[in-house]
Design a protein that fits this description.
With 379 residues, this protein is of the alpha/beta class. The chain folds into two domains: 128 residues, Rossmann fold (3-Layer(aba) Sandwich); 227 residues, Dihydrodipicolinate Reductase, domain 2 (2-Layer Sandwich). It is built from ten helices and 17 strands. The strands form three sheets. The chain has a nine-stranded mixed beta sheet. Strands 3-2-1-4-5-6 form a six-stranded parallel beta sheet, with helices on both faces. A two-stranded antiparallel ribbon has the order 9-10. Strand 11 and strand 12 form a beta hairpin. The radius of gyration is 21 Å and the shape is globular. The chain starts with a strand and ends in a 6-residue tail after the last strand. Bound molecules: nicotinamide-adenine-dinucleotide. The site of nicotinamide-adenine-dinucleotide (NAD) has 22 residues, from helix 1. The site of nicotinamide-adenine-dinucleotide has 22 residues, from helix 1. Keywords: Oxidoreductase. InterPro entries: Gfo/Idh/MocA-like_OxRdtase_N (IPR000683), Gfo/Idh/MocA_oxidrdct_glycsds (IPR050463), GFO_IDH_MocA-like_dom (IPR055170), NAD(P)-bd_dom_sf (IPR036291). GO terms for molecular function: nucleotide binding; oxidoreductase activity. This is Gfo/Idh/MocA family oxidoreductase.
Amino acid sequence: MKEIRFGIIGCGLMGREFASAAARWLHLTGMRARPRIVSVCDTNPALMAFFTENLGPIQATSDYRALLANPEVDAVYCAVPHVLHAEIYPAILAAGKHLFGEKPFGMDAAQNRAIQEAIDAHPGLVVRCSSEMPFYPGAQKVIDFVRSGAVGDILEVEAAFLHSSDINPMKPINWKRMEAVNGEYGCMGDLGMHVLHVPLRLGWRPETVQASLVKRVTQRPDGKGNMVPCETWDNATITARVPHDGGHFPMVLKTWRIAPGEANTWSLRVLGMKGSAFFTTKSPRQWQFMRYDGTQAWQTEDLGYTPLFPGITGGIFEFGFTDAIQQMWAAFVDELAGGDAKGFPCASPREAADHHAVLTAALTAGRENRTVEVTYATL
Ligand SMILES: NC(=O)c1ccc[n+]([C@@H]2O[C@H](COP(=O)([O-])OP(=O)(O)OC[C@H]3O[C@@H](n4cnc5c(N)ncnc54)[C@H](O)[C@@H]3O)[C@@H](O)[C@H]2O)c1
């Protein structure tokens, strides 16, 4: 099997998830290629022990330039705070490495544009943006249902990413709550790609948006005995007007970091004139659908382990978050090895740019309490 040699820049939460997915690659069957992590980089050296202890002798450096200078590295996964995307992603491409970058692909639209220019300058490199939730089998069922035409004219779409990790106001601040590092989008920058990936893939590009932005926690402890400003938006509810063949429809996008009772809920609901479909990670092995042949009654189907990229797990068993991460990586590695990601490639730079256009409009809409037109970048 072909081997693709990876470097990881940013060894925090998400860097470890990739290492774990790569370590159990034997889980997948029939893959064209496998990833091998040959280099890791983090400015916090303490975080690299996880990698060096589990992966044996690999390059470990606190300077990403050293990783990029390593000729053994074919592709790079970059999972660093948002403010650094616009510096490091172009450097990765300039070094001739394929890029799998974490969302939001730049802290704001201007930084995204700078990344896009670097991508345009290196057309031979494969570039994708992280977004794993659509790889749940239930999400794929909703996508297939829509693509089959079973929905008919659309009445409404709702896509949500809800969690409650910031509900405790005394949780110490981290970079995700600081505007200078996370960006002005706040929760929309953290979670916006998750809710927009599938809508944009299905061709649902908002024309205008309204947005309700909520900021409930204005100060947090800094971990050193002081209270410091907590600047970012906690929750955003965007209502978009989407042009479509059967007429405009409303699309509600919820990115909430303070959603009481929610752990990490990604959901997608499509309501149409002929049929409707729904998936939520709260019921990870089920999806629901309705076809109105006489009655309007939701049907619920248990899916079990039926992902795009087959694995050793029996079809009767459950699929979970770490599987979704591995499926996303399978899609990227398959593309690097010349495959078509089984028809569902990871989020593209174009989708990342379009999501910035929506979030930029939503930020103005929410701040100024008005409807704002979405201006898409010409790529
Ligand atoms: N796809 C998902 O589900 C998901 C979930 C969480 C976070 N993310 C994204 O992943 C990225 C990282 O988030 P995280 O939660 O892993 O954050 P994190 O804080 O856990 O990890 C980021 C790491 O980057 C390191 N770092 C900072 N500056 C660096 C530099 N100059 N060179 C090398 N390393 C540097 C930090 O020391 C830290 O260890 C963000 O873009 C975030 O939006 C994605």
